[in-house]
Amino acid sequence: MTGGRRRSETSRLAILDAARDLLLEGGYEQLTIDAIAGRAGVGKQTIYRWWGSKGAVVADAALEGGLAQPLTPLPDTGDIETDLRRWLRAWTEHLTTAQGTGLILALTAATADDHTVADVLFERFTQPHEQLLRDRLERARGAGQLASDAPVPTIASVLIGSLLYRVLTRQAPPTVDDADLVVRLVLGGAG
Amino acid sequence: MTGGRRRSETSRLAILDAARDLLLEGGYEQLTIDAIAGRAGVGKQTIYRWWGSKGAVVADAALEGGLAQPLTPLPDTGDIETDLRRWLRAWTEHLTTAQGTGLILALTAATADDHTVADVLFERFTQPHEQLLRDRLERARGAGQLASDAPVPTIASVLIGSLLYRVLTRQAPPTVDDADLVVRLVLGGAG
């Protein structure tokens, strides 16, 4: 790595760290490119050279900065109801912390703001998590715990969507009891 | 109404019209307070005097400017499956038009951007629509078409959330077939 490249990488990481810290401190609405530049000790033009918008910086900061829930397979105890409950309860608890809510609001605002950012976030964050869920549902269907014609993509979108809706409206946060009700409803319809 | 008040109301409506038109032409990401002021023929300060943020203008423009789906009761044919299908198909078709997608992305970005705007949009847009859905579900439960312990709020959040998730990710748009699958899944679990 040349000296120039090393300096670039140092600046890039300083920018992502600054964006992540500011996001956690004040949320997406308070975040400005000016503030990120000031905190990172770089010029605004350095940020604009690498990222097209505030949303694009936020997406990278969330994905590289460890804000997003790590991509771990769903538990497989052999019982789909137990496993879906654990998974949806864990996501409910994550997304209703201050950090988790801030993260999902920021990623949603970035997605709504910018179509390119939307594609990157889907490919690197949303889709891999949805795929893990679909994989576990496919195994349950193969094991006869779901009907042979159970619509796996629909079930996945229902489990994710009901939680997302409750978080995004910014009203009463969803609870683990809500998670259990959603799982029971879905498995009642797919069993 | 005094001359001053009349001028104020004229400016207010010009600002909301400009915001609505710019939103339909270029989407939320392109929209700026500068552009709204230019189109409406007012100074930026006039906008900032009445609205705290871009999100707040957009919320009012969507709610007063006829962009949002009108609040009409769900059909009641006496058959809950027929009625939910019609309702979810209509929303799916609305939210996958260019105007409908633009609207929901703008309202979501505004909600994620600003907590005050989130509360206003929930109270004036989201909650009334969710209440109509809950009312219809309650009647179906009373008529014995849903189990007596069917969790009406959960069913409502699942129906709305699955559609919202598919629209917000900005990937393949949901179809009326997806709507039918969601309704069948939910009624299978709640019947």
Automatic annotation (TrEMBL), chains A, B:
**Taxonomy, superkingdom:** Bacteria
Ranges for domain HTH tetR-type come to 9-69
Q: Does the keyword Heme apply?
A: no
**Pfam families xref list:** TetR_C_11, TetR_N
GO molecular function terms attached to this record: DNA-binding transcription factor activity; transcription cis-regulatory region binding
Q: Which UniProt keywords apply?
A: DNA-binding, Transcription, Transcription regulation
According to the UniProt record, which residues make up the DNA-binding region?
A: 32-51
Asked whether the UniProt record includes tRNA processing among its keywords, one would answer: no
The molecule here is called: TetR/AcrR family transcriptional regulator
